[in-house]
């Protein structure tokens, strides 16, 4: 009976398969692009009987300082995923409108669109990176939202900020450009945030899950100009952020914590360079995608090597890319964790 009540788009929905959705066992976790750095926070809460602030002022002020924006340009969300959902719910009409994505890319854009019965214009990363702006805009056609993951997950590729600006200019009045900057702390000079001073049709998604080492907190931010954010504020839940989450996020955005985050990012970027060298010298690896972010995506000569890694206790993220199923994404962990990758690569074939 319950199945007969389901809308067709939900009945046929293919759920997003997260890195943690499979019940895997292991000792070294390099499959979810998490930070290897854990930090303790102070919590003294005596007012949980009261609802929290809808938008915690201390947090939004801290993030506006960090991102060099006005507080009115910052909306705190439950991870960047809620920002994706909110933009579609606010700006797209179910059964009528469409979004554009450039694959391979982050899978939640498609899941959120499918959930809300929003059509998907699936274009390629190759088009985004190599075609001129007029060709891209023609291919985007009537899509209302254009999602650009930058750096892109899982390829690590970067769309130049100048190209994002040109797309926003060409699509003004037609579409919003949504730049997902989940990994931008690993290449901060590539951020599209400065474009907000010139464009009303750009929104930027951010998260504390990656460089800030707070994947378990589920905290993100939607950055945009006030006119773009105003209708989103009507759609967001009345109390989206818990008191405890707000207290931790406030501490994570303190001056000292931001300095610590940047120091950790420098270490992880160095670890990534070292891992690239190891991978490039391994006969098990046939191709490495050069890109930004706290991960490396590579192609193996044989996907059976993934099983040997799992038997060793090293958990990485298998992928099917470009029609082949022998791809692997390795999150950048600590030196000790990446040593397990080196040991795996040196095992006899």
From TrEMBL:
Chain coiled-coil ranges: none
Alphabetical GO biological process terms: L-histidine biosynthetic process
Segment forming the signal sequence: none
EC number(s) from the headed UniProt entry: 2.6.1.9
InterPro entries reported for this sequence: Aminotrans_II_pyridoxalP_BS (IPR001917), Aminotransferase_I/II_large (IPR004839), HisP_aminotrans (IPR005861), PyrdxlP-dep_Trfase (IPR015424), PyrdxlP-dep_Trfase_major (IPR015421), PyrdxlP-dep_Trfase_small (IPR015422)
Catalytic activity: L-histidinol phosphate + 2-oxoglutarate = 3-(imidazol-4-yl)-2-oxopropyl phosphate + L-glutamate
GO molecular function, one term: pyridoxal phosphate binding
Pathways involved: Amino-acid biosynthesis; L-histidine biosynthesis; L-histidine from 5-phospho-alpha-D-ribose 1-diphosphate: step 7/9
Record keywords: Amino-acid biosynthesis, Aminotransferase, Histidine biosynthesis, Pyridoxal phosphate, Transferase
PROSITE patterns: AA_TRANSFER_CLASS_2 (PS00599)
Known partners and oligomeric status: Homodimer.
Record-given protein name: histidinol-phosphate transaminase
Source organism per UniProt: Pseudoalteromonas luteoviolacea NCIMB 1942
């Amino acid at each position: 009976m319950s199945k007969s009540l389901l809308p067709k788009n939900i009945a046929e929905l293919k759920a997003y398969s997260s890195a943690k959705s499979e019940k895997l066992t292991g000792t070294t976790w390099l499959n979810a692009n998490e930070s290897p750095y854990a930090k303790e926070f102070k919590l003294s809460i005596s007012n949980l009987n009261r609802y929290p602030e809808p938008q915690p002022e201390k947090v939004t002020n801290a993030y506006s300082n960090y991102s060099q924006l006005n507080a009115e340009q910052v909306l705190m969300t439950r991870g960047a995923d809620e920002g994706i959902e909110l933009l579609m719910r606010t700006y797209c009409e179910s059964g009528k409108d469409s979004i554009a994505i450039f694959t391979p890319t982050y899978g939640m854009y498609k899941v959120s669109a499918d959930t809300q019965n929003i059509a998907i214009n699936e274009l390629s990363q190759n088009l985004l990176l190599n075609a001129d702006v007029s060709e891209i805009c023609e291919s985007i056609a009537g899509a209302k939202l254009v999602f650009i993951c930058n750096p892109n997950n899982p390829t690590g590729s970067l769309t130049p900020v100048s190209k994002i600006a040109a797309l926003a200019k060409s699509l003004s009045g037609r579409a919003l450009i949504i730049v997902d900057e989940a990994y931008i702390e690993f290449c901060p000079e590539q951020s599209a945030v400065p474009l907000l001073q010139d464009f009303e049709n750009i929104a930027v998604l951010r998260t504390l899950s990656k460089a800030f080492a707070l994947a378990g907190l589920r905290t993100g931010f939607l950055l945009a100009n006030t006119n773009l954010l105003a209708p989103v504020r009507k759609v967001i839940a009345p109390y989206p952020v818990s008191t405890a989450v707000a207290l931790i996020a406030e501490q994570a955005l303190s001056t000292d914590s931001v300095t610590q985050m940047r120091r950790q990012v420098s270490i992880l970027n160095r670890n990534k360079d070292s891992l690239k060298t190891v991978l490039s010298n391994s006969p098990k690896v046939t191709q490495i995608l050069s890109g930004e972010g706290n991960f490396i995506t590579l192609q193996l000569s044989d996907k059976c090597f993934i099983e040997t890694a799992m038997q060793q206790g090293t958990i990485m993220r298998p992928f099917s890319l470009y029609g082949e199923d022998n791809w692997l994404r390795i999150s950048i962990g600590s030196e000790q964790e990446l040593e397990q990758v080196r040991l795996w690569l040196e095992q006899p074939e």
